[in-house]
Amino acid sequence: MSELRYHPFLETWVMTATHRQDRTFLPPLDFCPLCPTQAGGFPTEIPAEDFDIVVFENRFPSLRRNPEPPAVEGLAMAPVRPSSGVCEVVVYTSDHAGSFAELSLPKVERLVRVWKDRYTELSSIPEVEYVFIFENKGREIGVTLSHPHGQIYAYPYIPATLAQELASERNYWEATGTTLWDDWLGAELSDGRRVIAEDSEFVAVVPYFARYPYEVWVVARRGVRSLAGADEATLDALAEALRKVARAYDRLFGFSLPYVMAMHQEPAAAGYEFARLHVEFYPPHRTHDKLKYLAGSEAGAGAFINDTLPESSAARLRACVE
Amino acid sequence: MSELRYHPFLETWVMTATHRQDRTFLPPLDFCPLCPTQAGGFPTEIPAEDFDIVVFENRFPSLRRNPEPPAVEGLAMAPVRPSSGVCEVVVYTSDHAGSFAELSLPKVERLVRVWKDRYTELSSIPEVEYVFIFENKGREIGVTLSHPHGQIYAYPYIPATLAQELASERNYWEATGTTLWDDWLGAELSDGRRVIAEDSEFVAVVPYFARYPYEVWVVARRGVRSLAGADEATLDALAEALRKVARAYDRLFGFSLPYVMAMHQEPAAAGYEFARLHVEFYPPHRTHDKLKYLAGSEAGAGAFINDTLPESSAARLRACVE
Question: Which of A103, A132, B50, B273 holds its CA 20 to 30 A away from the CA of A178?
Answer without folding.
Answer: A132
